[in-house]
Amino acid sequence: MKKIILIVGIVLLSTVGLGTFSYFQGWLPFSASGEDVLSTMFENMSENKTWHSETNIEIGAEVEGQRLDVLFNIEGDTDSTDPKNPKSDIKLNGELSMEGMSFSFGMEIKVLGQEDIYLRITTIPAIPILGMLGVNLDELKDQWIKIDTEYLESVPDENEEMVKQLTELFVGKEILVVQEKFADEKIDDVNCYHYLVLLDKNELANIVPEMFSIFMQDNLSLEQLSEAEKEEMLNEMITNFDGLMDGIGDINFEIWIGKKDKLLYQLNVEKEINTNELYGEDAYGNIDIEFKMNLSEFNQEINISVPKEFKSLDEVFPTEMFGEEILELEI
């Protein structure tokens, strides 16, 4: 079962990452193959200030006779009108089913600027171990909690620089290739161009070493390693990534672009993976992934405000509610 969860985790991150790249990348180049509409779309999306998104992710895995199903529904509003004070409101609902058990969970997160983050649990997962630990999440249902900035101090300031370097790394790299143009379709009554797009793994492989190097630089957890050990770790990461991509096979997806406004309205990914290709003959089974993201309400007014009532994290989880052994742990 650990192997199933590992596979699903890797694929989920890859799938979500691909969807994120395909949307938030006014800077990410695209091989338009003569289709000017595509380059115009990326330019228009980069200039977009507000939008609404709805994303559904379904992952089903059956490995060595064990079944795992994961469902996610993510709905969000984003307002980046003020680049120094971006706002977002994200609602996440999910369900995990495995070995005859099923858990549902839900939460909402509001981010206002660089420091104000609020979270509330909307659906409490019925997990027996929580009761055994004396944790009663029912009392927190629908309670807004402010995540104080002191709890985020562990996030290094270098993250902003890292994102900048990664952004620059992708500039000029044509990692997406248009395979086919389908007949036009309507998405939410909007006439759209419809394309099939392929991830160019060879082009991606060329930038993976530098990408991992950026991730590793200034990483405090690697400070104790020698340069030779860091080099060995980097080579291992590259080898594992190349093996993963070879095992997954081709990654293609469909996109729908508005014919009039040249904006991205929908992105779909469907992929079936044979675990034999990832872990050899000792692992048998399949992983099915479906990812669908719809975008709308471009450049319309969005109101994302601070919750009227909320508690601090210290109020919700006072230190006295934990045992001494927990308090002694360094996070």
Describe what this molecule looks like in 3D.
The chain is an alpha+beta fold. It has a single domain (2-312), classed as Clam (outer membrane lipoprotein receptor (LolB), chain A), CATH 2.50.20.20. The protein is 31% helix and 35% strand. The chain contains nine helices and twelve strands. The protein has a twelve-stranded mixed beta sheet with strand order 7-8-9-10-11-1-2-3-4-5-6-12. Strand 3 and strand 4 form a beta hairpin. Helix 4 (158-170) packs antiparallel against helix 5 and helix 5 packs antiparallel against helix 6 (227-248). The protein starts with a helix and ends with a helix.
Number of domains: 1
CATH topology group: outer membrane lipoprotein receptor (LolB), chain A
Shape label: globular
Q: Biggest sheet, strands in spatial order?
A: 7-8-9-10-11-1-2-3-4-5-6-12
Mean pLDDT: 78
Measured between the Cα atoms of the first and last residue, the distance is 27 Å
Helix and strand element order = HHEEEEEHEHEEHHEEHEEHH
Q: Which spans of ≥5 residues are poorly predicted at pLDDT below 50? A: 1-34, 321-331
Helix/strand/pairing category = alpha+beta
In short:
By secondary structure, the chain is an alpha+beta fold.
Which helices and strands appear, and what pairs or packs with what?
Blueprint: H1 2-23, H2 36-47, E1 50-63, E2 66-79, E3 87-98, E4 101-112, E5 116-123, H3 128-132, E6 145-147, H4 158-170, E7 176-187, E8 190-199, H5 201-216, H6 227-248, E9 252-258, E10 264-274, H7 275-279, E11 285-296, E12 311-312, H8 313-316, H9 324-327
Key attributes of the depicted protein:
331 residues, alpha+beta, outer membrane lipoprotein receptor (LolB), chain A, 12 strands, disordered N terminus
